[in-house]
Write a structure and sequence with these properties.
By secondary structure, the protein is mainly beta. It contains no helices and 6 strands. The N and C termini lie far apart (31 Å).
Length: 92
């Protein structure tokens, strides 16, 4: 699942395209459009954008807007129900 963390004083919807070079890229239209009330971090919003399919190796996330401006995006998060890989931080 893809999440976006952002702020927006004005509505600035974004289209997100995952792996735009693919024959049928995943597209999420007009996301992160909610006005959060300010540009400051204390008004950040976490928005669930949708389920994404990532492949091994390089994946590309492309942002498009028709407003000539984007919301103030702090980060995108990939959230998985399953581990992405075996990782044991306590292993030697």
């Amino acid at each position: 699942m893809l999440e976006g963390v952002y702020t927006a004083m004005d509505s600035r919807p974004v289209d997100i395209v995952i792996n735009p070079e693919d024959e049928k890229p995943q597209t999420f239209s007009k996301v992160m459009a909610t006005v959060t009330g300010s540009w400051w971090k204390d008004r950040q919003r976490v928005e669930t954008i949708g389920d994404v399919i990532v492949r091994p190796g390089k994946n590309t996330l492309m942002l498009r807007t028709t407003k000539n401006a984007l919301p103030h995006i702090q980060e995108f998060r990939l959230v998985s129900k399953e581990p992405f890989f075996d990782f044991n931080p306590d292993a030697d």
